Amino acid sequence: MIGQDDIMDKNEFWKLIQDAYKEANWETDKQMELLVDKLANYSQEDILKFGKIYEIYDKEANQSKLHAAAYVMNGAVNGGCSTQCFKYFRAWLISRGEDAYLNALKDPDSLIDLDIPYDNDYFENEFMVSLTQSAFNKSIGAGTEGVEGVECVEGIGGIDDSIAVDLDTYYEKMHLFELTDDEIQNIVGDISFDDDIGIKWNEENLESIVPKLYAQYW
């Protein structure tokens, strides 16, 4: 268990993500496996706080122009990016780290500058959405299949499929846990949005909205 002096905040949140990504040699599935292991060593309160911080970053990134970027990056061949796809895209963006996240909200077309080391890397990360849940469950030792009230989480890549989730315990605690107004403001205060982040778009005007991404991926 991480010592009491290690309290979860936005800096620790991003440090965990970046450290896991680097240790995984920039490979997404391995990063998720490492991140679950690292986060599970924190106190239950810190794990829940990690989840609440994630929810804020996810909510702030739910912007129209960023969705346009996600639509283009998934390409015409893949049919763009649905609402569910965009949820997983935001999770992928958060998993890329603080700089990538903040830059993308300030200018979604800046995603063209990301160093993506694998040609087969896809711009979605479904597991990141439920990562806090998996880490919390691992921290309390829930991992036995067939136990009443315990549901198994579908793993990806190197993630341990035996990790199970006690839904009642996790969701009850998450529902009751809240960040303070000061903590929330400290998180959102770092975010700067593109002037037209809420722009309406369709396939006909995508090139004018994110021209660099359009030239690369569409």
Overview of the molecule:
Helix 1 (10-23) packs across helix 2, helix 2 (28-40) packs across helix 8 and helix 3 (44-60) runs antiparallel to helix 8. This protein has helices at residues 10-23, 28-40, 44-60, 64-74, 83-95, 98-106, 126-129, 131-139, 167-176, 181-188, 206-209, 211-217; strands at 150-152, 164-166. 55% of the residues lie in helices and 3% in strands. The protein has a two-stranded antiparallel ribbon. It has one domain (10-124, 180-217).
Order of helices and strands: HHHHHHHHEEHHHH
Helix content: 40-55%
Our Rg estimate from Cα atoms comes to 18 Å
Number of domains: 1
What amount of the residues lies in strands? under 5%
What's the count of strands? 2
Observed structural traits:
two-stranded antiparallel sheet, 2 strands, 12 helices, 218 residues, mainly alpha, 55% helix
Blueprint (SSEs and pairs):
Elements: H1 10-23, H2 28-40, H3 44-60, H4 64-74, H5 83-95, H6 98-106, H7 126-129, H8 131-139, E1 150-152, E2 164-166, H9 167-176, H10 181-188, H11 206-209, H12 211-217
Antiparallel strand pairs: 1-2
Helix pairs in contact: 1-2, 2-8, 3-8, 4-12
Brief write-up:
This protein has 218 residues and is mainly alpha-helical. It has helices at 10-23, 28-40, 44-60, 64-74, 83-95, 98-106, 126-129, 131-139, 167-176, 181-188, 206-209, 211-217; strands spanning 150-152, 164-166. Residues 143-165 have low confidence and may be disordered.
